[in-house]
Design a protein that fits this description.
The protein is mostly helical. 68% of the residues lie in helices and 1% in strands. It is globular, with a radius of gyration of 20 Å. 55% of the residues are buried.
Length: 439
């Protein structure tokens, strides 16, 4: 039996173990890459900017983030013993850790950051191996709320991208909105009216159409591609490593949140496959999350987690093959060791990604809502937990200044809606008594 108890959902177009033809598999894998690329490089960029790192250090963090995300994705598709869930999960650099890493980096330096990332990863590994006895902590109620919060907190990011990106001089310009609308419209039209491959790859087609328009409008700068190197390999402990109890405890807390996110993502992905996750899939997925995050720290990369954007893509297209996500993992590794290719993908304008991303982010919320509707009893208790968790999560995410009187370390965590709402769901589910399953 899996963590949840009522297998349901639409049958997938391409199942988890199916191998589509190579000519279809490669573009579908590329579509997964496009869905998560900006999300994967954004956390290192935020951290590098916040810590005032030099350009060459920032470039290194971006390259290693791609390599480690790719390796972690491959392990999820093709497990190494107990590490990996044999599931179509795309891994990427986690946004949940950004606040804690900035706090640690400013006070202790990057060596302490990577030491904490390595040492605290054991928390998620232990939670993964203990999932059988910890089921009550992560029931469908909690998981569904976490998935909904992931989607709801990503939607504003999608809107920002569609408008040109936060801080852009032309934020909200008609050109930016037009490029985003083109990606959005093509994606939606092909998904609803396309047939076969055009429907499967609707997001990729929408991005390609909008990218072509951006090139025609002179909105793409290829200078970074010409200047980038052709080949670079990761090296161990590039910025050193130190261990301090304070930083380790801070990130251990965030790994618990990452565990909830991964359980929610696995549940949402398997919903697209028409069934519930098994304990083996949950255990392997969580152990891989922790092990690969610790491994990444040894090479100067920040923790990885399952990427909700790609859960939305799986649900949107019905393509649930782990062999396709493995292709995305290979693409990520190639991008990481060939900076010139990575630079090419980095030329995608923010509105192009935002237009396609908005649909996927909304689908993440819809996936969480479907889990709640299908697998959670509509009792007063459960509806209260849903309302309070979503309310607190969105309140913290959209009005972070309300927490400004709290200690900075505490406020930094609670400003993330996923942390605040996820913790509220977890604690309320343990504290509030059960009642009759009626609204």
């Amino acid at each position: 039996m899996g963590l949840m108890h009522a297998p349901s959902g639409p049958a997938p177009v391409i199942g988890i173990d199916e191998r589509p033809p190579f000519a279809q598999a490669v573009p579908l894998g590329l579509q997964h890459l496009v869905a998560m690329l900006l999300g994967n490089i954004t956390p290192p960029l935020i951290i590098a900017g916040g810590l005032g790192l030099e350009a060459h250090s920032t470039a290194f963090l971006l390259q290693i983030a791609l390599v480690m995300a790719g390796l972690a994705t491959l392990v999820q598709a093709y497990p190494l013993g107990p590490v990996g869930g044999r599931i179509p999960i795309v891994m990427g650099t986690s946004f949940a850790f950004v606040g804690g890493i900035l706090l640690i980096g400013k006070s202790h330096g990057l060596a302490a950051v990577f030491g904490a990332c390595l040492a605290a990863a054991i928390v998620e590994v232990v939670l993964g191996f203990s999932i059988d006895s910890l089921k009550r902590l992560f029931p469908p109620l909690v998981n569904s709320i976490v998935v909904m919060l992931i989607g709801l907190t990503l939607i504003p990011i999608g809107v920002d991208y569609a408008a040109g990106g936060v801080g852009a001089a032309d934020y909200g310009s008609l050109i930016n909105l037009g490029l985003a609308a083109l990606a959005f419209t093509v994606t939606l039209a092909l998904h609803q009216f396309g047939r076969g491959f055009l429907r499967y790859a609707s997001v990729l087609c929408g991005v390609v159409a909008s990218y072509g328009a951006a090139i025609g409008l002179g909105r793409v700068d290829f200078s970074t591609v010409r200047e980038a190197a052709w080949f670079a390999l990761p090296r161990p402990l590039p910025m050193g490593i130190e261990f301090h109890w304070g930083p380790i405890l801070i990130l251990a807390f965030v790994y618990v949140i990452s565990t909830m996110e991964t359980i929610g993502d696995i549940s949402g992905t398997l919903l697209a496959a028409g069934r519930e996750p098994t304990n083996r899939e949950l255990k392997g997925g969580l152990v891989a999350d922790g092990v690969m995050s610790g491994f990444a720290a040894l090479f100067g990369a920040f923790p990885n987690t399952s990427y909700s954007q790609n859960v939305g893509l799986v649900n949107f297209t019905g393509v649930a093959s782990r062999h396709i996500t493995a292709i995305a993992g290979l693409f990520l590794v190639v991008l990481g060791v060939v900076p010139k290719v990575s630079a090419l993908f980095a030329t995608l304008p923010a509105p192009v990604i935002g237009g396609g991303g908005l649909i996927m982010f909304a689908m993440i919320f819809a996936s969480g809502a479907a889990i709640f509707h299908q697998r959670v009893s509509p009792s007063r208790r459960n509806l209260v937990i849903l309302a309070v968790s979503i309310g607190l999560g969105l309140g913290a995410e959209l009005r972070p200044q309300a927490l400004q009187s709290l200690p900075e370390g505490v406020a930094g965590f609670l400003r993330a809606g996923l942390v605040t709402g996820g913790l509220a769901a977890l604690l309320l589910n343990l504290i509030l008594p059960q009642d009759d399953p009626s609204p």
